Amino acid sequence: MILGFLLPLAYLIGSISSAIIVCRLMGLPDPREQGSGNPGATNVMRIGGKKAAAITFFGDFLKGLLPVVAVKFLGAPPILFALTGLAAFVGHLYPIFFKFKGGKGVATSAGVLFGFDIFLGSAFALTWIAIYKLSKISSLAALITSALSPVYAWFLTEDPVLTIATLIMTGFLLWRHESNIRRLLAKEEK
Question: Which DSSP string do the residues of 57-110 spell out, in sequence order?
């Protein structure tokens, strides 16, 4: 019964598009129609600058973090907060409020991972920052960090359920970055 309430609620929270809301409130163009067409923080930075991007990132991060933390606070087992995190993440990728066309999921997955375990989330964040500082390419940082996150999950949490949930998010993140991967291989990624 609790699953029937929590998972749809987490999905609906994930379906709230921070990028679209921020752009509307700040008088910016719709991120689905400008830049890369992706409703995420990186594209919002292209069309609206650092402040708009930071707010977007924070919103996307919170919608991954808060459902997981709430379920953990209720004393749920790892399987339940893993499923809750996945529901919020899938909501970001396929938001019911925006015709199932969402972002790529990096900020939301970071929030989910911080909800799973603060050390796991920190490893994700520090890896992304390090790769971005070296490469100056956001998508490359996201891809490498996402690929490493299941390894981090295994070693830092030692929980197979959280590791599998992290692996599922990694699969979606890599798939959603397919066009970025092609551009990176062709050395055309900005």
Answer: HHHHHHHHHHHHHHHHHTT--HHHHHHHHHHHHHHHHS-GGGTT-----HHHHH
Please say whether the dihedral angle defined by the alpha carbons of residues 69, 123, 108 and 166, taken in this order, is positive or negative: negative
Q: Do 57 and 41 meet the contact criterion of CB atoms below 8 Å apart?
A: yes
Contacts of 27 (CB under 8 A, 6+ apart): none
Q: What is the mean pLDDT of residues 120-136?
A: 95
Model's pTM, two decimal places?
Answer: 0.92
Cα separations in angstroms, 49 against 13, 28, 84: 25, 10, 32
The answer to whether residues 8 and 86 touch, using CB atoms and an 8 Å cutoff, is no
Contact 32, 20 (CB under 8 A): yes
pLDDT in the model for residue 3 = 65
CB 159 within 8 A of CB 112: no
CA distance 118 to 124: 10
Share of the chain above pLDDT 90, in %: 69
Contact 66, 46 (CB under 8 A): no
